[in-house]
Amino acid sequence: MKILLVTGSSGLIGSEVVESFSRDGWQVHGVDNNMRAEFFGPGGDTRWNQQRLLGSLKNFSHHELDIRNRPAVLALLRELKPAAIVHTAAQPSHDLAASRPFDDFDVNAGGTLNLLEAARLACPESPFVHMSTNKVYGDAPNEIGLKELEKRWDYADPAYADGIKETFRIDQSKHSLFGASKVAADVMVQEYGRYFGMPTCALRGGCLTGPNHSGVELHGFLSYLIKCNLEGRT
Ligand SMILES: NC(=O)c1ccc[n+]([C@@H]2O[C@H](COP(=O)([O-])OP(=O)(O)OC[C@H]3O[C@@H](n4cnc5c(N)ncnc54)[C@H](O)[C@@H]3O)[C@@H](O)[C@H]2O)c1
After folding, report:
1. Domain 3-138+174-230 - what CATH class?
2. Using CA positions, which residue lies closest to atom 9 of ligand 1?
3. Does 44 sit in the ligand 1 pocket, CB within 6 Å?
4. Phi first, then psi: what are they for 9, rounded to 5°?
5. Which end is more exposed in the chain, N or C (fewer Cβ atoms within 10 Å of the end residue's Cβ)?
6. Nearest-CA residue for atom 18 of ligand 1
7. pTM for the structure as a whole
8. In whole angstroms, what is the distance from residue 80 CA to residue 101 CA?
């Protein structure tokens, strides 16, 4: 049975990856330390999602591990030698990063480097997929001209009809400290691919949500809005 390592496995995206690969017959190992609760308080707690996965999937194991813990990350990768890695663990909020810049950078940039180097030493042939973000472009996309349609705004230049290309510039732009730590991780993921020839990939998503998000005001805002609505909060 092929082994997949998923970091941030109790979070929104990580838990979906766990379920999908687990159903496809992979042996899935999740890494999460519920740091989302430490970041955002009880509303951000992800233990319920961890328990849901452990209760419903036979081929899923949970590792209570902080990705900032370099020796522990190196040891886990050395032990598992996963056939693929999906890295979704992160400090995901712009606003929180401004008040906790060390934690933000240590988790997002340092944690990603720990995983990349551990993968290079243990399983350099295994695909390494990193959940990056469209925030790596900072506010530069705001410079693209818009046109008003009947019900919405759209880019005026047809070159952007299918969205913003990955070649769009990421510097000379304001990112927030969160965006900057994610740029560091994104570039490092690319570098391990180009410099060491590893099969790495950075996916730049934006505004993702779903029923398994521990949504709070500072992150997972769409999920938070729905919860407020259901609970009649204003
Ligand atoms: N949700 C979105 O809209 C969105 C959009 C674009 C990119 N992303 C990126 O996708 C990734 C996952 O986002 P999400 O919405 O699933 O976030 P999430 O907060 O739901 O999941 C992240 C998980 O990582 C865990 N974690 C945090 N720090 C950790 C640490 N030091 N060690 C181990 N585990 C730790 C948290 O406890 C949490 O369960 C992030 O990198 C985020 O930047 C998310």
Report:
1. alpha beta
2. 131
3. no
4. -70, -15
5. C
6. 11
7. 0.97
8. 32
Query: Residue 147: what are its φ and ψ, rounded to 5°?
Result: -130, 145
Cβ neighbours, 10 Å, residue 63:
16
Residue in 89, 114, 116 with CA at minimum distance from that of residue 104: 89
Distance (Å, whole) CA 63 – CA 174: 36
Choice from 32, 65, 164 to test ligand 1 binding pocket (greatest atom count within 8 A of CB): 32
**Alpha-carbon span 82 to 21, nearest angstrom:** 13
**One-letter amino acid identity for 92?**
P
**Mean of per-residue pLDDT scores for the chain:** 97
Among 140, 130, 126, residue whose Cα is nearest residue 108: 130
Q: How far apart are CA 16 and CA 197, in angstroms?
A: 28
Domains of the chain by residue range: 3-138+174-230, 139-164
Ligand 1 atom with the shortest distance to the CA of 36:
37
Residues 6+ apart with CB under 8 A from 162: none
- Give 233's pLDDT tier (boundaries 50, 70, 90): confident
Residue type at 29 in one-letter notation: H
Instruction: Report the distance separating Cα 99 and Cα 94, nearest Å.
Output: 9
Q: Pairing relation of β-strands 3-7 and 27-31?
A: parallel
Arithmetic mean of pLDDT, 108-116: 99
Distances (CA, A) of 192 to 21, 125, 202: 24, 12, 11
